[in-house]
Structures are given as structure tokens and as C-alpha cells.
Write a structure and sequence with these properties.
This protein is of the alpha/beta class and 296 residues long. It folds into 2 domains: 214 residues, P-loop containing nucleotide triphosphate hydrolases (Rossmann fold, 3-Layer(aba) Sandwich); 74 residues. The strands form 3 sheets. It has a 6-stranded mixed beta sheet, sandwiched between helices. Strands 2-1-4-5 form a 4-stranded antiparallel beta sheet. Strands 12-13-11-14 form a 4-stranded antiparallel beta sheet. A hairpin with a 2-residue loop joins strand 12 and strand 13. Bound molecules: adenosine-5'-diphosphate. The site of adenosine-5'-diphosphate (ADP) has 12 residues, from helix 1. The site of adenosine-5'-diphosphate has 12 residues, from helix 1.
Length: 296
């Protein structure tokens, strides 16, 4: 099954153009949608999840017209929103049972089996009798995935799933996502580049409502090799470097400031050495390039 998005556009009543002629073709497997805050990711996710209207354009999922056949789409959709609210006093088991019945699993024993299987799958079997209010952020997210998996969805959308998780929880969440069937389209919307680098075979970068890069993470990274140069500088000189070069990233390295710049030729200034390009370099260079174009 494929998800094909064509010419999708959305402007909010306050004039913000959240989506500007978005075109994407997404096949089964993990797909990363990467972009800074405010890029339009949630707007796109909510529109695909049939929760919001677009102004124009189309979304096709297999043979379904997503913008029109909303009920049919909802039957094969699993959605984990950015803010996944849970009722704090209800146990994981009871809540999942309730959601399963809302999603149409009416047979009681079938539902009981399903709930147990899902809780085991997301590694919450041991805490199924615990109230959701006692769960950590990572446990809540895994619970969110369990509810999104009810009904064997063909399309799963997860919006900013690892924000606020500690590294161990994030790792567990990643493993869970990557286990979800190869026949399912999983769209992972995030501003965390490593999540996409670690998990996704295809990706797009979105900025100010526009798709500014698309492809395989490894191929996009390979294209940037030979264009990224690094230098450790005195922090107070950073603005001078910004004026002179396309500085795409600054990191603190053992208390010192390291900059990455993007340019085709090696800089003549002493101290620059070639850097092995990472997906983060690709991400920041694409955004810097886009910002330059739109501000000129
Ligand atoms: P992201 O998920 O990438 O952070 P969003 O889709 O949430 O981006 O937002 C895209 C842009 O649309 C932002 O500028 C945001 O402020 C604006 N926006 C989002 N929702 C609304 C809304 N309901 N009304 C007006 N503006 C909105």
C-alpha cells in the first residue's frame, strides 16, 4: 500500500501557511518526517489522520481518498498524537479494553486476548494492573503505541514520540517501532534527527510548510560528503564565522565550540578540517539553504 500526497495546501485563518504544495509518496516501512518546530509536521499528520481539513490537494491511501473516505481510513489507521492524554486513575488493561471496544472489537474474550497480547508486545504486561497516572513518559508512549496497534492498522502515524523520554526509554520505543510489520506504513514525525537516522529507510525534511529534501537518509548523507568542514573556535568569534561562512551547526565539544560549515571547496583559512557528514549536517544545511533562499 502507498500513501500519495499531492499538492496539499493549508492556510490557517490567521494567515499562517502551514502547508504549501506538499507532494510526497510514502511506501511501507518507517518514514521519517523531519522539520523544526512550526514546520507544519503536525498539520500534515493531523490531515493524514483525517482530523483536519486541507484547503486543496489530495491524499490517497491505497484505493482510499483520505480527504473524503474518512471513516474507511480510520479503520486502518493507528495514530499516536503528540499529546497523548490518559485517564490517570484507570489501569492500563482497563483503558486499552475500553479503546478496543470503541474501535469496534465487540467480542469480550477476543478483546481480552487482544489487550493481553498488545500489552505484552509493548512490554507493559507486568504493569497492566497499574494506574496510567503512575506511568513514566516512556511507558505512556508505549501504551500509546499499544492503542495505535488495535485493529492491525495499515498506516501508523506517530507525532514527536520521543520528546521528553530518557535515553533508555527512547531506545525501547525505537525497538518497538522498528518491529512493527514491514507491511505497515509508519510515519514518524520529529525534530530529532537521530531518531530518523536510526530508524527510517526513507525521509523528508519539511520547513515552513514546504518539502525541502526527500530520499534515503544514507543517500542524502552521502551527497553531503566532501562539503562539510569543521573547526574548533573561540565561542566569542562565532558571529564573525556566521558572517563569513554558511555555519550549519555548532556543538560544544569538551567545553569548546566546534562549528560545521557547508561549502564545496576547502576553506583557505587555517584550522578547518574535513568532517564526515552526518544526517544532522544534511538537515541543518538544507534548512540554512532554504532560509537563505527565502530571505533573499
Ligand atoms: P510542527 O508540528 O512542525 O511544529 P505545526 O503543524 O504545529 O508545526 O504548525 C505549523 C504552523 O502553523 C506554525 O506556524 C503554527 O504556529 C501554525 N498553526 C498550527 N496550528 C494552528 C492553528 N490551529 N491555528 C493557527 N495557526 C496554527
Amino acid at each position: 500500500m502507498e500513501l500519495i500526497i499531492e499538492h496539499l495546501t493549508k492556510t490557517y485563518p490567521n494567515g499562517v501557511q502551514a502547508l504549501q504544495d506538499v507532494n510526497l509518496k510514502i511506501t511501507a516501512g518507517m518514514y521519517g518526517l523531519l522539520g523544526p518546530n512550526g514546520a507544519g509536521k503536525s498539520t500534515l499528520m493531523r490531515t493524514i489522520a483525517t482530523l483536519q481539513e486541507a484547503d486543496s490537494g489530495s491524499i490517497q491511501l491505497g484505493n482510499l481518498n483520505v480527504l473524503q473516505q474518512k471513516n474507511e481510513v480510520r479503520k486502518i489507521l493507528g495514530y499516536l498524537p503528540q499529546e497523548f492524554g490518559v485517564y490517570p486513575k484507570i489501569t492500563a488493561e482497563a483503558m486499552l479494553d475500553h479503546i478496543a471496544s470503541l474501535k469496534g472489537v465487540t467480542n469480550r474474550s477476543e478483546r481480552k486476548d487482544l489487550v493481553q497480547r498488545l500489552l505484552e508486545r509493548v512490554n507493559l504486561g507486568d504493569v497492566r494492573k497499574k494506574q496510567l497516572g503512575t506511568f513514566s513518559g516512556g511507558m505512556k508512549q508505549r501504551f500509546g503505541i499499544a492503542q495505535a496497534l488495535i485493529g492491525n492498522p495499515k498506516l501508523i502515524i506517530v507525532d514527536e514520540p520521543t520528546a521528553g523520554l530518557d535515553p533508555a526509554e527512547r531506545n525501547r520505543f525505537h525497538n518497538l517501532l522498528s518491529e512493527i510489520g514491514a507491511n505497515t506504513i509508519v510515519i514518524l514525525s520529529t525534530h530529532i534527527v537521530d531518531d530518523v537516522a536510526n530508524l527510517c529507510k526513507n525521509m523528508a525534511i519539511i520547513c515552513k510548510g514546504q518539502v525541502i529534501a526527500e530520499g534515503h537518509p544514507a543517500e542524502l548523507t552521502a551527497k553531503a560528503q566532501g562539503h562539510i568542514w569543521r573547526k574548533v573556535i573561540d565561542k566569542s568569534t562565532i558571529e564573525q564565522y556566521r558572517e563569513q561562512y554558511r555555519v550549519i551547526n555548532t556543538t560544544l565539544l569538551e567545553g569548546q565550540t566546534e562549528i560545521h560549515i557547508y561549502q564545496d571547496e576547502a576553506p583557505s583559512e587555517a584550522g578547518f578540517t574535513p568532517a564526515v557528514a552526518t544526517l544532522e549536517d544534511v538537515y541543518f544545511s538544507k534548512i540554512a539553504e532554504y532560509m537563505d533562499v527565502v530571505t533573499i
